[in-house]
Protein: PLP-dependent lyase/thiolase
Amino acid sequence: MNPRDSYESIMAQRTEIMRSSVGIDYARYITGPLSFDYERLLADTGYDLQTIRSIQSETGVGNTPMVELRNLTGLARAVSKPGMGARIFLKDEAANPSGSFKDRRASLSAHEAKKRGYRGIAAATSGNYGAAVASQAAKAGLRCIIVQEAFDSKGVAQPEIAEKTRACEAYGAEVVRLSVGPELFYVFLAVLKETGYFNASLYTPYSILGIETLGYELALQIQTGEGRFPDVVVATHAGGGNVTGTARGLLKAGAAETRVVAASVDLSGLHMASDRDFNRKSFTTGHTGFSIPFSTWPDRADVPRNAARALRYMDRFVTVTQGEVFYITQVLAEIEGLERGPAGNTSLAAAFAMARRMERDQIIVVQETEYTGAGKHPSAQLNLAKQMGIEVVRGDPGASKPGKSIVIPEHPAQIEAVDVDLDRLRRSYLRNALHSLGEKRFPTETDVRFLAADTKSTQDYVREVIHEHYGKSG
Structure:
């Protein structure tokens, strides 16, 4: 990086760097102090769903198998009350080129970058998205840089992130590895400025539109095979893009009655920006350290307006423990012959618990899997946990304490999906929005309508929270 690009200098240029690296003038969509025209932001990309499917098919993305997990369904029924135990299906997204659904969002970004004449593409991510961007860049003939938070201040790397570094480099990308801390965004901006590459942010319209094909495909696959849409779709929830894109795809397929459930690993009490806590978790994404902050304030993203707005679309939000995900990962391998990575298995653990409380003729779909290998294996994650002084035991997973213990179930009946209070999330989102206005600005009626849509609530609900907020602050 140019030594003259100080932190203050780069941050002062943030708006211009983002505009030139994404090619979107977000100011055009502002409709009020808090609101923006969300649908127009997406529509102005010029990509409809069928066009995106065509683009993805050219690079081998999408059209992944839908697998009924008959043995896992049987196990759920064996530990359920009579007549209960929904059929569990799995959308095997590991069949995508880099091994996860992230290829869907990366494919459209790479296509857009190529179309606009960018020489390369860059992303800031420690998850599967880096490998997906690197893979799609390779297909498009673009250069690629991935910026990762990879290790703590002692140089101890997360094995899962190390595996993703390996994958990115295998696809020919340059990987900038950083220790945990606030410099990630600064370094990413500096990379964008210096290279002039396209910003394949997780939160642009391209990234969300690319995932719509996932929800659309799975709805049609179940409808074709079973004669109806699924009752429930479970999506692992981190920054909101997976839930948002999948739900929008379901709606475009006509599956308006299908309930969308977000699922995250419970890491309550751990701080994602903490050097101490960085290696005290066994999952790099799909956990509450991302999903709660991004649900309650989506515009904390690296672009001015986040196109991933999970609260708009989720009907329920549940958490599972790290031990439960490790357990279901092993069960999936042993009785279904599918060895897959931890991200999709988060929603699978939640789906298993939920299926036990659904009727036998109902259908629940886990909408993703991811590839596995090396650092993604439970053994690698559990070995690091033990090195960090975390107790790993068998027992009741409900007794686990993130950062202190991982409790692996002794019996499948111990797997539970714990509900997150959506009303609490909605109120937290609204309070964050109102705080962002400061003391001298107030929401307009346009803002009220936007906030009601963004929280999947009503205008009266939003006005009630606004009244409470200004009543307390005034």
